[in-house]
Write a structure and sequence with these properties.
Blueprint (H helix, E strand, L loop, with lengths): L6 E7 L32 E5 L7 H5 L2 E3 L19 E5 L3 E5 L4 E5 L5 E5 L8 H4 L18 E8 L5 E4 L6 H8 L17 E7 L2 E7 L26 E7 L9 H15 L7 E6 L4 H16 L4 E3 L8 H18 L21 E5 L2 E5 L1 H8 L6 H14 L1 H7 L7 E4 L6 E4 L26 H22 L3
Parallel strand pairs: 1-3, 2-4, 9-11, 9-12, 12-13, 13-14, 16-17
Antiparallel strand pairs: 1-8, 2-7, 5-6, 5-8, 10-11, 15-16, 17-18
Bound molecules: guanosine-5'-triphosphate and magnesium ion (MG).
Magnesium ion binds next to helix 3.
């Protein structure tokens, strides 16, 4: 049974916001005590958090559907609904989060680094919160918003400072077992290691991690052996170590041609060219191995490699090797200015949060924007008052004005939102007179003293700000 999984598809769903409550306070002898419907609770988020104690994505392979809980609806008596609980999903250090199309959303490195994979829906405001000077007893409340749902892919790229590469049976796992406390499987048949092993090495004051990957053979890039798939786990390393077998019994092989063959496969994989490399000649406890090492050492050094002769069995040369690696790792860390732990890519917002767009399309007008789309989701279309409130909000944002500008007429079709979940209206302008679009429900400019255009715009902006404050005060995120 495999216990190591380094790529999973995960379906995450945040909790829905609870609906707001429309209720009127009742008390003996006080028949109309005012609105007292509470707000709905926020839906829980789904959050990925790095836990360095975890090294595999196996849990998500077994149960790939994860959902946070919903917010509770508000109740009468100004009782707010409880928030849903966030669902925290621990992931290994070095987990890369991708969307279904393969775009990187986040690169989670460092204990505690987190990423909101799906955001919970906001709770809807109750009618108590919707009451204002001009709307004393709203007979409606806002709906909770649905939580986000996404299909994502998690891909593990192990975070190790040192990566060991080499032919099968060169002694990579043996070296990890003697340099660190890790106890990987070791055997004299090829491809003993089927998944990367990770060990922690302490050399002087430097602590670093060391990983091997399954053995490589010529043609790995065409899928021979276990292929190059696992090289993803060495992508983050600071130094590559070629582990060369000085005592192989295969007649067509020797450490130098092995090195060339592995380099050819690394080049095929790509992206590792800039990493420093050192050469480890292993198995020098075997006399023939030591002889061969002596023979080829000058050759390798002439090529610019730092060469270490070691034996994982007799433990010869290990101290020197581990300190040399510590030195390279320490230098690489010093050269890296920012800690990788903050490398987070924020999911781009599709539309500018503050604004909206109106576009004329084939036979209809489409309104896009974070706010208009959210407001539509919050509207209970069975309640005329709620629909009126939506119209007011859209009007205040300037949507009607913009519709007039792009040429919309009464009765035209207006679509709010993207293709998949749009809401379609037959547009009825709040005021029939095309140019006079600045009024609001229950007011008629014809009775007002005429205001200059600049003043009207200012008034409208102030009113819009008030409405937004009103909303955001209750939804502070
Ligand atoms: N004599 C001798 N044998 C060694 C030494 N290092 C490893 N071996 C032996 O070589 C064989 C392969 O060792 P592993 O550590 O499993 O090799 P590997 O590179 O991890 O191999 P794969 O996981 O198959 O890629 C085992 O039988 C080890 O006991 C060494 O320094 N001297
Ligand atoms: Mg191995």
């Amino acid at each position: 049974m495999t216990t190591f999984v380094d790529r999973v598809e995960l379906h995450v769903a945040a909790g829905n916001g609870g609906h707001g409550c429309a209720s009127v306070h009742r008390e003996k002898f006080k028949p109309l005590g005012g609105p007292d419907g509470g707000n709905g609770g926020r839906g829980g988020d789904v959050i990925l958090v790095v836990d360095t104690g975890i090294t595999t994505l196996i849990d998500y392979h077994h149960s790939p559907h994860r959902k946070a809980t919903n917010g509770k609806p508000g109740e009468g008596g100004n009782r707010s609904g409880a928030d849903g609980q966030d669902l925290v999903l621990p992931v290994p250090d070095g987990t890369v989060v991708l969307d279904a199309k393969g775009n990187v959303l986040a690169d989670l490195v460092g204990q505690g680094t987190s990423f909101i994979a799906a955001q919970g829906g906001r709770g809807g405001l109750g009618n108590a919160a919707l009451a204002s000077a001009r709307r004393k007893a709203p007979g409606f409340a806002l709906l909770g918003e649905p939580g986000q749902a996404h299909d994502i892919v998690l891909e593990l790229k192990t975070v190790a400072d040192v990566a060991l590469v080499g032919y099968p049976s060169a002694g990579k796992s043996s070296l990890i077992s003697v340099l660190s406390a890790a106890k990987p499987k070791i055997a004299d048949y090829p491809f003993t290691t089927l998944v990367p092993n990770l060990g922690v090495v302490t050399a002087g004051s430097t602590v670093y991690t060391i990983a091997d990957v399954p053995g490589l053979i010529p043609g790995a890039s065409q899928g021979k052996g276990l292929g190059l798939e696992f090289l993803r786990h060495v992508e983050r390393c600071s130094v590559l170590v070629h582990v060369l077998d000085t005592a192989t019994l295969e007649s067509h092989r020797d450490p130098v041609t092995d090195l060339d063959a592995i380099e050819a496969e690394l080049a095929e994989y790509g992206g590792l060219g800039d990493r420093p490399r050192i050469v480890v000649l292993n198995k020098v406890d075997i006399p023939d191995g030591q002889d061969l090492a002596d023979l080829i050492r000058p050759d390798l050094e002439a090529r610019g490699y730092q060469v270490f002769e070691v034996s994982a069995v007799s433990r010869h040369g290990l101290r020197e090797l581990s300190f040399a690696l510590a030195d390279i790792v320490a230098r690489a860390r010093a050269a890296r200015p920012v800690q990788e732990a903050t490398r987070i890519v924020i999911r781009p917002q599709a539309v500018d949060d503050a604004g909206f767009t109106v576009t004329a399309e084939d036979g209809f007008y489409r309104v896009r924007g974070e706010k208009p789309e959210r407001w539509v989701r919050q509207t209970d279309f069975n309640n005329d008052e709620a629909v009126g409130y939506l119209a007011d909000r859209l009007n205040r944002l300037g949507v009607e004005e913009e519709l007039v500008k792009v040429g919309a007429r009464a009765g035209d079709q207006v679509v709010i939102g993207p293709e998949e979940d749009a809401v379609v209206f037959d547009w009825e302008p709040s005021l029939a007179a095309g140019a006079e679009m600045l009024g609001r429900r229950g007011e008629d400019h014809r009775f007002d003293a005429p205001r200059p255009a600049a003043q009207r715009r200012k008034d409208r902006d102030a009113e819009r700000d008030e409405a937004e404050r009103e909303y955001d005060e209750f939804n502070p995120f």
